[in-house]
TrEMBL record, chains A, B:
It comes from Swingsia samuiensis. Plays a role in the regulation of phosphate uptake. Belongs to the PhoU family. This is Phosphate-specific transport system accessory protein PhoU. One of its GO terms (cellular component) is cytoplasm. The gene is phoU.
């Protein structure tokens, strides 16, 4: 019995270590997204290369979290919300790793964009970037604070990201139709916009898992979505 | 003691149930990818809609696997390779769910493609589709058979998918440059090619997790990649 408080404390310590690794991983991918957006806004090669390089750290943290989670599951027999939290951490690292990949991909593409004497406006992309960055920050806050209410807020906020994406998609296709010299850059920008939209989706996945870990309940299977499809009529009306 | 064999058997039964749910989930997403490719090849609306609808089933299976995995972890205290297999299942469902999403997305886009009197050839996309389908099938076989050798084979085979993607990307941009009327369909096709490439990446993730679950070792952090970047020189040489 004398050892019991020690064991309990040690499980808490290890769970605390897991949480701090998750917070660290979240901080890095937030930073990667910020760097990738700076790379677009300012054609900042250093930011782009820094976003790219941090991918290795994220991949290593994913493996480390997995190792610690397996250790906790094997040796500590965690139950109820602790168990849900460890399982959520295993899934969330996958989302964070993908967000890091998308940020690295945006950073690489950013250096290949030429806006051709201002023909192509990047203001829509920048606004979308800020919104995605904000949602990501809030989803990581919900994770570190295990806050189900904040999780629900972010879950609803992704709708606006989808709407931005649709508007941006239309705008970029219009630039391509107007002048074939825009095709190269707009193709890169289309993928950048898609990557941002995917980062928003992964931020949503994170809060879904946080919500489940904290409450033991799932959010509804369908999230309200912004209009991500363009109808044939709209295409034909160009 | 009299109960021990019963408990042991029952853990095996529950692990068997987890395996059969994973195999079922793998089978559905394989089928979704096949339907999505049929939707492209034959403009088959029924196939497209069927690919799309199976997403719900995949999402439900992901939740069911998670529920059963948590149950096994909480009540059975699995160790060593059993524990690794359950953790791998939790991660692999995420990959399978994404593959299903990409297949649904390809199916939706397929109906918006117009090849304009054969100006745009889909043969490259079809070849890439067959290769991705083949890699996915083999990665799911590696999973159901817990076969580390097969896992390593698939892991190497993804390089060819990356090469197809790069070639296809170039081809599609050329069609757009040749005739602005191709821009609409080629934009959809670019995203379809990207989705196929991502399905290939997720098949690679699956075999990485299978390899770890079976051997307790990680595959190297870097996979040999096909050329997925197009250099500025190549762009400029158009």
């Amino acid at each position: 019995m004398a050892d019991k408080p020690h064991i309990v404390k040690s499980f808490e310590q290890e769970l605390g270590q897991l949480r701090s690794m998750m917070a660290q991983m979240g901080g890095i991918v937030e930073n990667q997204v910020a760097l990738a957006l700076a790379a677009i806004a300012d054609r900042d090669e250093e930011a782009a290369s820094s976003a790219y390089q941090q991918d290795l750290e994220v991949d290593q943290l994913e493996r480390d979290v997995e190792g610690l989670a397996i250790r906790l599951l094997a040796l500590r027999g965690p139950m109820a919300s602790d168990l849900r939290e460890i399982v959520a951490a295993l899934k969330i690292t996958g989302d964070l790793e993908r967000i890091g990949d998308y940020a690295a991909s945006i950073a690489r593409k950013s250096l290949r964009i030429q806006t051709g004497e201002g023909q192509i406006s990047l203001s829509g992309l920048r606004s979308m970037g800020r919104l995605v960055q904000d949602n990501l920050r809030r989803s990581i806050d919900a994770m570190t604070q295990r806050d189900a209410n904040r999780a629900t807020e972010v879950w609803h906020a992704d709708r606006a990201v989808d709407e931005y994406y649709t508007a941006l998609f239309r705008e970029l296709v219009t630039y391509m139709l107007e002048d074939p010299r825009n095709i190269r850059s707009c193709t890169e920008l289309l993928f950048i916009a898609k990557n941002l939209e995917r980062i928003g989706d992964h931020a949503t996945n994170i809060v879904e898992r946080v919500y489940y870990a904290v409450t033991g309940e799932n959010l509804p299977p369908f999230r309200p979505r912004g209009g991500i499809e363009i109808s044939d009529q709209e295409w034909d009306a160009r």
